[in-house]
Amino acid sequence: GAGVSQSPRYKVAKRGQDVALRCDPISGHVSLFWYQQALGQGPEFLTYFQNEAQLDKSGLPSDRFFAERPEGSVSTLKIQRTQQEDSAVYLCASSQEGSRTTDTQYFGPGTRLTVL
Amino acid sequence: AQSVAQPEDQVNVAEGNPLTVKCTYSVSGNPYLFWYVQYPNRGLQFLLKYITGDNLVKGSYGFEAEFNKSQTSFHLKKPSALVSDSALYFCAAFYQKVTFGTGTKLQVIP
Questions:
Q1: Beta-ladder partners of A73
Q2: Which of B42, B99, B100 sits opposite A109 (nearest CB)?
Q3: Scanning A16, A21, A53, B64, which has its CA 20 to 30 A from the CA of A83?
Q4: Subunit contact B36:A107, Cβ cutoff 8 A
Q5: Residue B1 — very low, low, confident or very high, per pLDDT cuts 50/70/90?
Q6: Count of CB atoms within 10 A of residue A53's CB?
Q7: Contact criterion met (CB < 8 Å) for B43 and A109
Q8: Distance from B52 to chain A by nearest Cα, in Å?
């Protein structure tokens, strides 16, 4: 497809379960970003990849959160031992070049995670 | 600390009237500023950005924004609002980190 896709669109997990969220960026885009958007809030930065290199993971809230992009394309955000406070929409974005400041980011539709 | 403020949770405007959605920022350098729009159950869509140059930036769907360095503002404007403009609007500053505002819900009344 032409845009950023994310799967699943909705995920319900019991507290303590592990989840994996997938992001397919626009083909050829160098940079990939993950954000967490809580209800009624703006997106909060989680982590940033340039190709397969994770250049910034300062926004990951705990060591239960892990992201990878092994071949510089598809990325997976994994959350271990989910907690209720992890409930949010997780947004993925990609940009064409390697600048994290000037390049336009194109967002996917998000994955809504609900932890019961 | 870097921050972006959108002081209005909601803006109501009559169809055909001009609209303004406000954004101010606090960044210790020269930021790059963006506006995104979010429709229900959809991701953020890019509207426009200021990187450098002309302070008035024109974007998608007839929107424009003016960068004002002295007032540290980047307000979003449109001369004539459409009902279809009703959505959630986010301002963002990209500097050493990415910071989004909390969003402003725009309601255009027919």
A1: none
A2: B42
A3: A53
A4: yes
A5: confident
A6: 10
A7: yes
A8: 10
The DSSP line for chain A is --S-EEE-SEEEE-TT--EEEEEEPPTT--EEEEEEE-TTS--EEEEEEETTEEEE-TT--STTEEEE-TTSS-EEEEESS--GGG-EEEEEEEESSS-TTTSPPEE---EEEEE-
State chain B's mean pLDDT as an integer. Answer: 93
| Closest residue on chain A to B30 (Cα) | A101
Using CB atoms within 10 Å of the CB of residue A59, give its burial: 0 to 12 exposed, 13 to 18 middle, 19+ buried: middle
Which pair of tokens denotes residue A14? Answer: 């019991």
- In the 8-state DSSP scheme, what is residue B3? E
What is the rounded CA–CA span in Å between residue B103 and residue B44? 11
pLDDT in tens, A16-42: 999 999 999 999 999 999 999 999 899
Measured between alpha carbons, how far is A13 from A10 in angstroms, rounded to an integer? Answer: 10
Please state, in angstroms and rounded to a whole number, the distance separating the CA atoms of residues B75 and B91.
Answer: 9
DSSP string spanning B8-53?
-SEEEEETTS-EEE--EEE-SS--EEEEEEE-TTS-EEEEEEE-SS
